[in-house]
Automatic annotation (TrEMBL):
Its main location: membrane. It holds the Pfam family 7TM_GPCR_Srsx. It comes from Steinernema carpocapsae (Entomopathogenic nematode). This is G-protein coupled receptors family 1 profile domain-containing protein. The chain crosses the membrane at residues 22-44, 56-78.
Length: 126
């Protein structure tokens, strides 16, 4: 009975790892495929809103990479100290804050666009 239960736990853990890896690969691939044109195409670089979206994508990439780093590190470590956990969590925490600031600036951009539609271009370039 115990062997069956532990086998089920490992099986569900393997499924979780596979699903997490697939979502991680999709997240990184899609964010990079959208971020690259934003960086290398001159028309996209001139638009401030697209720059804010690029910042959001970069934050997502950092977060996903940090989560992968943490998962791989904690999977291999049997016991970790608080300092090791902090270093393992740093990339994902930095990505979260990067993403939150990007969402804040996008919201501010949209607020200005809705509040002052005729003066939006002069306010944002300004």
């Amino acid at each position: 009975m115990c062997a069956e239960r532990s086998a089920r736990m490992y099986f569900s853990s393997d499924i979780y790892d596979i699903v997490t890896t697939v979502f991680w690969i999709l997240s990184i691939t899609l964010n990079i495929s959208i971020l690259l044109p934003t960086i290398f195409v001159r028309v996209f670089r001139r638009d401030r809103f697209k720059n804010l979206l690029a910042q959001l994508m970069l934050g997502d990439i950092i977060t996903a990479s940090g989560i992968l780093f943490r998962a791989c590190y904690l999977r291999s470590a049997s016991n970790t100290t608080l300092l090791e956990c902090t270093f393992g969590d740093f990339p994902s925490i930095a990505g979260y804050h990067f993403s939150q600031w990007a969402v804040f600036w996008i919201a501010l951009d949209r607020l200005v666009a809705v509040s002052y539609p005729l003066r939006y271009k002069s306010v944002m370039v300004g």
